[in-house]
Design brief:
The chain is built from twelve helices and 19 strands. The chain starts with 17 loop residues before the first strand and ends with a helix. The protein is an alpha+beta fold. A hairpin with a 3-residue loop joins strand 9 and strand 10. About 25% of the residues lie in helices and about 20% in strands. It is globular. It has a seven-stranded mixed β-sheet, with helices on both faces. It has a four-stranded antiparallel β-sheet with strand order 5-6-8-7, with helices on one face. Helix 7 runs antiparallel to helix 9.
Length: about 475
């Protein structure tokens, strides 16, 4: 297999994860100094990144996309594929705090809380139909419609209307405009109105488009073998030039150890690696490790409708009893850091003035005493009314890092008389329990960025 030496799609790992890229031979210019066949005098090819065309990138993923409809998908593997096949209005820049045009040519704000979007005239859907303003308007209205039940509906809640001024201009009006509301809109991934415009919005999640999408991005959807892999291929008609890579394969390998073995044996090229596996890869000449920006904090969400975590004293005691810096040092060896707040320090919305509750096991014990939880039978676990203080936490079985963190927390919490019971679930079941609020505690995280900062923070941590 040969990977092109030009840049292909950018695949970002979040949080304390690492990327491992298998070492493969790449094309390049003539060693004697002349241009390679197909290249110009400067050694550049007519591809998006200027590299020679060719090669397949095999990405090893721990789970399968749920679907590939930009309106309704709700998983990280789907996000990766959707953003290869489709264009957002704009894409995040390398600082993760700003945007560059993608489907848009430019945009501007008006004093009357109106955002003017100017579309590029040269982008077509993969079936040859030009992408136009009506596609953007349709997508905004569909994503806002409660019948669609889009996971990204909160991103557009501040939008009051969207109208097509002409075929390449969209006027979007907001209740109140600010950086957060504009950035959230720029994350929008338009869909083709000529395909989905007559669809039943209440059944959008089940439309065949979600399994065989028609996009407008640098890659075209090619195939999806359920439980095995998703394949996308270079779009030869991309106006900025086709990608250097011929194709990208998302191969589904739920078992992390199996994925590591495939990576080391050359059967895969890209893998998000748990930090505790870093040492295993550092001794290999076949891979290279990359650190990614820490923009994916992880946390345990408590279902405050369920006792005993409906008591704020219990929730605070659980946090005070856990040595988070110690866990970071012991498990991540410097590749992670304790979160000061749910908002990463790398984003401008982060406030350094907010400080976390300190590690204080004695203080945790006093809070639990005050909440009426005491060890009355001497078994080491606090109880109340004959009921032990047992806390249950769900996590995705595909994430061994979270399992390791929970095991460390079990030992810490037992010292203050709390029995932490951890429950692994297959990813789909874990998400379902989260959505249906069946959990008592759920260990999860969310990737942050300039466009989703406001909506996500409000949805997860805000109150009215």
């Amino acid at each position: 297999m040969r990977l092109s030496s030009g840049a292909g799609p950018r695949v970002l790992a979040a949080g304390a994860a690492l990327l491992a890229l298998a070492a493969c031979g790449g094309g390049g210019g003539d060693k004697a100094g002349g241009a390679a066949p197909g290249a110009d005098a400067n050694g550049h090819y007519k591809t998006f990144a200027g590299g020679p065309p060719g090669g397949t990138l095999i990405v090893l993923a721990d789970r399968e996309p749920d679907e590939l409809n930009p309106l309704t998908f709700d998983s990280n593997p789907a996000f990766q594929v959707v953003h290869l096949v489709f264009r957002a209005l704009a894409r995040r820049d390398s600082t993760l705090s700003g945007y560059q045009p993608d489907l848009l040519q430019s945009w501007e704000t008006r004093p009357d809380s109106t955002l003017v979007l100017h579309l590029r005239p040269d982008v077509k859907w993969h079936d040859g139909v030009p992408v136009r303003a009506e596609d953007v308007v349709f997508t905004i209205n569909a994503q806002k419609d409660p019948k669609v039940a889009s996971p990204r509906k909160p991103d557009l809640d501040p939008v009051t209307s969207a109208t097509a001024q002409d075929s390449l201009t969209v006027l979007v009006r907001f209740k109140e405009m600010g950086p957060s509301t504009v950035n959230a809109l720029l994350e929008l991934v338009p869909v083709p109105k000529h395909i989905l415009g007559t669809a039943d919005l209440a059944q959008m999640r089940f439309h065949p488009f979600g399994r065989k999408p028609v996009g407008d991005g640098l890659f075209r959807f090619a195939s999806w073998n359920a439980g095995q892999q998703v394949v996308v291929e270079a779009n030869p008609d991309a106006p900025e030039g086709r990608p250097s890579l011929d194709r990208v394969v998302l191969r589904i390998i739920p078992d992390n150890n199996a994925a590591m073995t495939m990576l080391l044996s050359g059967q895969g090229d890209l893998l998000r690696v748990p930090s505790d596996q870093r040492a295993r890869l550092q001794g290999s000449q076949a891979v290279k490790l990359y650190h990614a920006p820490r923009v994916r904090p992880a946390w345990i969400a408590w279902n405050v409708s369920k006792p005993p975590v409906n008591d704020i004293r219990v929730r605070q005691a659980l946090l005070m009893a856990v040595d988070r810096p110690g866990i970071v040092k012991g498990l991540f060896a410097g590749a992670g850091e304790p979160a000061l707040t749910p908002i990463p320090a790398s984003l401008r919305e982060h406030s350094p003035d907010v400080r976390p509750i300190p590690f204080d096991p004695a203080g945790a014990g006093r809070l639990l005493d005050a909440a009426g939880w005491r060890d009355t039978n001497g078994d080491g676990i606090r109880d109340q009314g004959g009921r032990p203080l047992r806390i249950e936490v769900d996590y995705s079985s595909s994430d061994p890092t979270r399992q390791d963190v929970l095991v460390a927390m079990q030992a810490a919490l037992r010292k203050v008389g709390v029995d932490l019971s951890v429950h692994p679930y297959e990813s789909t079941a874990w998400v379902q329990r989260l959505r249906e609020r069946q959990f008592q505690g759920s260990f999860w995280g969310w990737g942050w960025g300039p466009g989703v900062m406001g909506p996500n923070a409000q949805q997860l941590f805000g109150t009215k």
